[in-house]
Automatic annotation (TrEMBL):
The keyword DNA-binding applies. This is TetR family transcriptional regulator. Residues 13-73 form the HTH tetR-type domain. It comes from Amycolatopsis thermoflava. It holds the Pfam family TetR_C_13. InterPro entries: Homeodomain-like_sf, HTH_TetR, Tet_transcr_reg_TetR-rel_C_sf, TetR_C.
Length: 205
């Protein structure tokens, strides 16, 4: 049985923030299963009791590490959208955000893909964070597709999500160094096709 995930809107103490920062780096660099609470506590300069007092369990610490990472990803996506871009342009800006994210945050592959492989139980709070992150992006893309006047917003959003996920894995594995740029080109074709009727209608007004 897993514990309730620690909420990120509740301020953490300086010691807890230090634990979370250290744990996040260790989990990402070495893998979740390879790192125990003894190592995290020692690297953070705290006792195991302090770690458990702040986070309850390793599972909850893993989940909070993933949630913090997801929060940064969402903020990156929103920041690239910009206030002066059209909904159709915002859909493509997701790929610009992804390229920047891979350059700065995913130096050892996708943290969520890596974590998903290490957390087989669907009840693990970390798995729930991963699922929520993907659902958020799908919803974000779908809302933009609606605003862009796409013929089938849900279908377009799903196709773009597949491109994002595929490009993430391909780029992380160094299989296709230009995976994100390629995905963006394909995405532009899909967006243009899906919104063609909207553009034609606007041009006739």
């Amino acid at each position: 049985m897993y514990c309730q995930v620690v909420e990120t809107d509740k301020p953490l103490t300086p010691a807890a923030e230090r634990i979370l920062t250290v744990a996040g780096k260790l989990f990402y660099d070495n893998g979740i299963h390879a790192i125990g609470v003894d190592t995290i506590a020692a690297e953070a300069g705290v006792t195991k009791k302090t770690l458990y007092d702040r986070f309850g369990s390793k599972s909850d610490l893993v989940a909070l590490y993933l949630r913090r990472r997801d929060e940064r990803w969402r903020e990156r996506v929103r920041s690239f959208a910009g206030p002066r871009t059209t909904p159709a342009q915002k859909l493509l800006k997701v790929f610009d955000a992804l390229a920047d994210w891979l350059d700065t945050e995913n130096t050892r592959g996708c943290a969520f893909v890596n974590a998903h492989a290490e957390l087989p139980s669907p009840d693990h709070p970390g798995r729930q964070v991963i699922a929520a992150s993907k659902q958020w992006l799908l919803g974000y893309l779908r809302d933009l597709a609606v605003d862009a006047g796409a013929r089938n917003p849900a279908r377009l959003a799903e196709a773009l999500l597949v491109l994002v996920e595929g490009a993430t894995v391909a780029a992380s594995l160094d299989v296709a160094p230009t995976a994100v740029a390629t995905a963006k080109r394909v995405a532009k074709s899909l967006v243009d096709e899906a919104t063609a009727a909207q553009h034609n209608s606007a041009s006739r007004r």
